[in-house]
Fold this protein.
Amino acid sequence: MEDAGHFPVLLEEVLELLAPALRRTVVDCTVGLGGHAAALLEATGEGTMLVGIDLDESNLLKTRRRLARFGARVRLFEANFADLEAVLAEVGVASADAVLADLGVASSQLEDPSRGFSFQVSGPLDMRMRRQGPTAGDLVNTLGEAELVELIWRSGQDRYSRRIARAIVRARGRGGIERTDQLARIVAGAYPPARGGRRRIHPATRTFQALRIAVNRELENLQGLLEKLPGLLSPGGRAAVISFHSLEDRLVKRAFQAAARCGTHRNLTPKPRTPSSEEIARNPRSRSAKLRAMERIS
Ligand SMILES: C[S@@+](CC[C@H](N)C(=O)[O-])C[C@H]1O[C@@H](n2cnc3c(N)ncnc32)[C@H](O)[C@@H]1O
């Protein structure tokens, strides 16, 4: 059963790649709304425990209800997946048989204007998955121009990062930048006119991505997970990671290749798995997804 508007990305591929490892301890590092988790629980029996982790307490609240029918087979933790080792220790195991991470934002987060993730609706510039630390608004209103250029270039890969940073600094000089639609207009205004008609993506897409990545320390957290992941798999255990942009995918690819070079792990996806055209038509948000998997062999 799907929640309206929510489809777990690359679900069949995840189940197929993790199937041989679906034994006792299965971890969903980004349990979100529980779509993948419910399918993993359905694919396994009473002897399998699913450990679900998420930074977002409101997602966990919904997921607790959604997965209630699986009873004591489910253990949910409000935690950072970079702390996977500590979460496993809390459930009394040293390693996991199957681990999934489906990176990025959940539809519940994108669709709630009060969370500030979307430039399509007006909301406060928040973007925090866990309500702690600086918001996107704090970054936009306090970083120096050079720091903004660096952030928008490095984490957003926007070739107009200089123009955008200049426009942000100029606009905030006239009063703070507080709302998502306000920032989206400032960024769009910094772009040169589109050549030959319509743009492929909204000009604010990359700046919003950069801010979200910075606010939630997404690349640092992913790196933290990837460093520990090979050692936290049981022999024969498998890990699958779904990423949504090249910055993440590069980290996953390198980590899995490095583990394979050590001879302790096998890379199960020399080429990443990507969604079919049917899946993209059903769920346009899946279009940039890449799935990579590895197995511990010794
Ligand atoms: C794309 S959604 C996952 C959707 C989920 N697979 C499903 O089927 O409902 C990503 C989730 O990961 C969570 N998240 C992002 N970074 C995290 C981190 N470092 N640790 C734990 N959860 C994280 C987000 O809060 C969000 O709920």
